[in-house]
Amino acid sequence: MMTTVKDRCPGCDGNEQDERYDELDKVIAEYKGKPGALIPVLHAAQKIFKYLPEEVQDYVARGLEMSPSEVYGVTTFYSFFSTTPQGEYKIGVCMGTACYVKGAGKLIEEIEKELGISVGETTPDEKFTLVQTRCIGACGLAPVLTVNDDVHGRLTPDEIPGILAKYRD
Ligand code: FES
User: Residue 150 is part of a domain; what is its CATH number?
Assistant: First the structure.
């Protein structure tokens, strides 16, 4: 019989019903024992769970036979890993120099007002997460914001409600 990490995890009973852990087991089995396994496994785990809560980090640690603190260290070091729930749409407001001087701060204020959240937070309906980004290489369009893969440039605060409305529906 195949042994999965769940068999070695006395605290994981509640997860037996959660098919996401089955998916994660497959990824762990694929990478286990290979050099540099942790980052691709965490990437896959984040894709499966949408973020990396502590229980998932612990699960990965057990699966790869690493210490939880090692996994936590990597998860928190890289900005592309998130330990809090993420919205369906990630709004990134560029705070690089060009965007900053052209009023990116005002865009953030308007988004915060519209969504009722601050930078780093997710709306209660898990629709939007608001973050600040570094220069994304579109300085000619400053100030710029991204919504997932979409880029919106040369923005003024009064355009924010219209942009959000597109993604709300
Ligand atoms: S500073 Fe914002 S895109 Fe470069």
Answer: 3.40.30.10
- Mean pLDDT over 79-100 rounds to 92
pTM, two decimals, is: 0.69
pLDDT in tens, 66-75: 999 999 999 9
Structural domain range at position 33:
6-77
Is the CB of 138 within 6 Å of ligand 1?
yes
Kindly state whether residues 57 and 119 are assigned to the same domain.
Answer: no
* Number of domains forming the structure of the chain: 2
Q: Is 136 in the pocket of ligand 1 (CB under 6 A)?
A: yes
Average pLDDT over residues 121-128: 93
Residue 1 domain flag: no
Specify if 124 maps to a domain.
yes
How many A from CA of 156 to the centre of ligand 1? 15
6-20, 23-37, 102-116, 141-155: least confidently modelled range: 6-20
How many C-beta atoms surround the C-beta of residue 40 within 10 A?
13
Strand ranges in the chain using DSSP code E only, listed in sequence order:
89-94, 128-133, 145-147, 150-152
Residues 97 and 70 in one domain: no
Q: How far is CA 26 from CA 32, 126, 134, 142, in A?
A: 10, 28, 35, 43
Nearest-CA residue for ligand 1 atom 1 is 96
